[in-house]
User: Fold these one by one.
Assistant:
Number 1:
Amino acid sequence: EAGFQDGDMIVRLQDADKLPISNMLGVGDVRRLATRLEVRAIAFTPGVDGEYTTSVGALAAGQWLLRVNVFDTEGEQVVVHVEKTLLVP
């Protein structure tokens, strides 16, 4: 699950058993699908209940592809990879 709230991007992650994936390192990027020219690297701040937040600033209207990699606690291995298309009004 991903979206925007109060100027921040919020991603909520769960495992196959619907349990939150929390307190891990989350990094990724967001790229505009219309032009593929605008790409922003992002780092997420982990919160509670599988919630990760980041500030990406103002995004132009349209479709954006969000890609997130969540690493194990040692930061060595990707345990979750997510891609989601977001619509910015």
Note: The first strand starts at residue 2 and ends at 5.
Number 2:
Amino acid sequence: RSVKRRQKMFEVGLIDEVAYLEKKYRDRRLPALKAIGIKEVFDYFNGKYNLQTLKEKIITNTARLAKRQQTFNKTQFPTKISAPLKELENIILKNF
């Protein structure tokens, strides 16, 4: 799934978009410019990665973020309710 997402990012112009953002804001330290995809493109611009490595880094960093989010969610939400949609609706309405 992350490969398809990354592929779509490049198809719709990720590199051009990051170049535009850099030109517009002129400060790579802005929090919004540290998002996955953007920060790796900056490294690509700096010559740290070739295009293939850039694509691999985006996938790797996306997977790392997903893992951290899963771990966080497990610690914050220990009870997980799994049921068909209609049953979930009834559970939600009953409890809230």
Note: Helices lie at 2-11, 14-25, 38-45, 51-76, 85-95.
